[in-house]
């Protein structure tokens, strides 16, 4: 079994040093608790509700700089996925790093930017990385990416056992007794792809935006096995990530082999009818 | 508002005449209740748990024959979607007809066959039809098709406002207090595509198989607005199907326009890594 820690934090926009300290401490605590995989929220180092592109740029980090090195130093034997604003030569990206004690192993740049993120970030142009780790293959995508089934399918087809999803889910209207829509989507995505999913969300409020605090771990059978609850905290789950390797659902059912890519075509935007 | 009736029946395998009588009566009652769209289960005329291909063939119907004409005669001003075993020159298909008082307007042949259906039916080779009706555009797919997000996306991209989904969901293990996985998938699919979904399921037991009795209507915002409950019955919902036309979710968010088909590629099976 692999212990997953999906950590719900409450970053403070602009407080780079404090956010970094709290995020690194969360990794240390998760590793001390036995986690082999630690997932932190989207933009955990910078905060989210920017007022200007310049503000996002000032808070952005180089992946090869000292900030992310602190996560590697705290990782022990675990794999860590953390969201950060990435400073690149050609712009600022809403990114997530997958790293371990050896350093940064992959950086993913969010492709599906949500709402005003389009003012502050350049969109990524590469598919989600799927990285072989000691406990299984981890795919990385960020928040709104999860709501594009093409994107999660691509990660599943590339062999991901677990999707690590840093998120910042703004609190939306949810009927009494219902789960947040994003959690419903995680559950359905796990089930449709036979893939585990760990979403690390935010808690609290920032510049008038309330967060869902929806941190959740879903197993490969689509069962919601852990949540962080309100406030900061951690969703802990012990999963066999290799469950994701067997896509059979019944004697003659295989969730990926039963696809009909001959009929799907490129799913191009040109097909959109308005 | 458009009144939808998703009807949960309990067909008896082999009792073609009785199944047909009960299904036509359900259409008459739905229309009398004000339904503008009536959805009946998968294989509503034949039953589901076949023992041999020959049994399925004997129960199969020609779409232009007298059986489906009875549904057209009962349709009044409504559009009816009904699942049936289809007899064609090149085989037997698990099909659904969309029809109205003018007759059969479209026949869809299930593309993603589930488990032992592969023994009894030939797979369809065409995309879901999306048919313009007086109340909006209705897309038709069948049961397991709903669990392939490529397929539902294709229907959404083709402009469907409502997915009409005849189903036969065998009862699977569902944790206490959870909804059936198929209903979770319907909810998430509605939300990801901003599309309404009406699933008509079966009740009862047939040759040792229990059914989920999960008949559900989900609105374009992903809210589960009606269920039929246990036993035979109808899920009634009044929806504005035109809600599905506006894919915006926030000022700068459009669920279809924000897709990145330039990065999706053909999602081919060749990409599968085992």
Describe the structure.
Two copies of one chain form a homodimer. Chain A has 274 residues and is of the alpha/beta class. Chain A has seven helices and 16 strands. Chain A has helices at 16-32, 53-58, 66-74, 117-120, 149-157, 181-193, 261-264, and strands spanning 2-8, 37-39, 79-88, 91-100, 103-109, 130-133, 136-140, 162-166, 196-200, 205-206, 209-210, 216-218, 224-227, 233-239, 248-250, 253-254. In chain A, the strands form four sheets. Chain A has a six-stranded mixed β-sheet with strand order 5-4-3-2-1-14. A six-stranded mixed β-sheet of chain A has the order 6-7-8-9-12-13, with helices on one face. A two-stranded antiparallel sheet of chain A has the order 10-11. In chain A, strand 15 (248-250) and strand 16 (253-254) form a beta hairpin. In chain A, helix 1 (16-32) runs parallel beside helix 3. The model of chain A is unreliable at 269-274 (pLDDT under 50).
Task: Tell me briefly what this model is.
The structure is a homodimer of 274-residue chains. Chain A contains seven helices and 16 strands.
What are the salient characteristics of this protein?
homodimer, 274 residues, alpha/beta, six-stranded mixed sheet, 16 strands, 23% helix, globular
Ordered list of secondary-structure elements with their pairings:
The structure is a homodimer of 274-residue chains.
Chain A lengths: L1 E7 L7 H17 L4 E3 L13 H6 L7 H9 L4 E10 L2 E10 L2 E7 L7 H4 L9 E4 L2 E5 L8 H9 L4 E5 L14 H13 L2 E5 L4 E2 L2 E2 L5 E3 L5 E4 L5 E7 L8 E3 L2 E2 L6 H4 L10
Parallel strand pairs in A: 1-2, 2-3, 7-8, 8-9
Antiparallel strand pairs in A: 1-14, 3-4, 4-5, 6-7, 9-12, 10-11, 12-13, 15-16
